[in-house]
Amino acid sequence: MMATTHLLAGLLVALPVALVYPSFAMPVLIGAAVGSVLPDLDLYYGHRRTLHYPTIGPVLAIFGAIGAILYPHPWVVATAFVLIGAAIHVRMDIYGGGLELRPWAGTSDRAVYDHLRGEWIAPRRLVRYDGAPEDVLMATTFAVVPLLVLDGLLWYLVAAALVISILYGLVRKPIVDLGVILLRHVPRPILMMLPVRYLEGELADRL
After folding, report:
1. Radius of gyration (Cα) for the chain, nearest Å?
2. How many whole angstroms separate alpha carbon 86 and alpha carbon 65?
3. How would residue 44 be classed by pLDDT, with cut points 50, 70 and 90?
4. Residues with Cβ < 8 Å from 185, sequence gap 6 or more?
5. H/E/C letters for each residue in the chain?
6. How far apart are CA 27 and CA 58, in angstroms?
7. Which end of the chain is more exposed for a tag (fewer CB within 10 A), N or C?
8. What is the torsion angle, in degrees rounded to the nearest 10, for the CA atoms of residue 139, residue 142, residue 147 and residue 149?
């Protein structure tokens, strides 16, 4: 799924807490926003393995929530929602596509790596690939309530995420073909720095 879908999902989950406890609104919402995109920092190194913890992550989120309840300090609350946002992100990825250059082909059996079991969880493909129509629809749905309730900088963040989601969905498939064409002109040392899943055919042969 798109990073923007994860971001909007995290904000939507955090929003009720922010409304009930307005004094903690910023730690809750910012923590959820950061946590929701944090796992994808492993995009170019061990994607969905290095920072994705589908089993351990939810457990850490529960402990974080308990800590925030017992000691409701802004930094503790923010940390709890970082963990909650990250846990939601990773569990959502299981229901997306696999790790491949063209995930709509459905050839990969890897969604998220489960460190506890030492194996990959297979993709469920309820959302076939990041940027798929159903992914854009999900992002749009998640954005409705935050756009109605939030204001200021966070409103613009949600609006920007929604616009990016729609635009990305429009170019998702063509951008892969364009990327392959551009990579043909990239020096071999740079190609060796890219994840193997981004290389195919003659590009893979150059390694």
Report:
1. 18
2. 13
3. confident
4. none
5. CCHHHHHHHHHHHHHHHHHHCHHHHHHHHHHHHHHHHHHHHHCCCCCCCCCCCCCHHHHHHHHHHHHHHHCCCHHHHHHHHHHHHHHHHHHHHHCCCCCCCCHHHCCCCCCEEECCCCEEECCCCCCCCCCCHHHHHHHHHHHHHHHHHCCHHHHHHHHHHHHHHHHHHHHHHHHHHHHHHHHCCCCHHHHCCCCHHHCCCHHHHCC
6. 19
7. C
8. -170
The pair of structure tokens assigned to 1 is 């799924």
- For the residues 166-188, what does the mean pLDDT come to? 82
Please give the mean pLDDT across all residues of the chain: 90
Report which residue type is found at 106: G
pLDDT greater than 50 at residue 1: yes
Q: By CB neighbour count within 10 A (0-12 exposed, 13-18 middle, 19+ buried), where does 107 fall?
A: exposed
The pLDDT score that the predictor gives to residue 207 is: 46
pLDDT tens column, 87-134? 999 999 999 999 888 899 888 899 999 999 999 999 999 999 999 999
Task: Read off the pLDDT of each residue in 147-153 and give the average, rounded to a whole number.
Answer: 93
Give strand pairing partners of 113: 120
Cβ neighbors of 66 (< 8 A, separation 6 or more) are none
Q: Per the structure block, which two tokens stand in for 38?
A: 């944090």
Could you state, in order of their start, the residue ranges of all structural domains in the chain?
3-175
